[in-house]
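Quick start: what a row looks like.
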Amino acid sequence: RLAAAVSILLEGYPQIYSLPRKFKISFSSCKNACAQPWINDLGFITKTVDGETVFDIIGAGSLGARPAAGILLKKDVPLSDVLLISLAAVRLFNENGDRGKRSKARLRHVRERVGDDIFIEMLNEFDSFVYYFNNVDLYELNWMVFDFFDLVHLLRKYQVFLSFLFGVWFG
């Protein structure tokens, strides 16, 4: 359900279909990270800490002619932050991806161009931007029982906030 919620949310982002290149997201719920988050643009590894579901977030990995593993971007992220961090990563990629060279157009290449530390700072800036304008309480949601109809209700309830973020109106 969480992957579906991320997909629906990102499909509302106007530039999602004109990103510099594909953007792959994986969710792993096993301790071996079987969904291979280290070779995706964004990967979430689920774990339980003190009885709470949290995620380690891996980013900017890819396969290809010169494969490179992603790096740990954030550790022990609460479930309620996954949507906002996903949006922040896509926005970072949209604004900094290389549209001129297809072979250098993945999120990994942004990281390689600026370095790991600056890349993480850039993600945190986009993440902070999303949080700064987040005047709604997304933490009230129980993500474990979240379904499509809850998402539609959420989009309608917070359409002013979301229209600011995405530049579109959810009617």
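That is the whole record. Confidence is low (pLDDT under 50) at residues 132-146. Helices lie at 2-11, 82-96, 107-114, 116-132, 148-157, 159-166.
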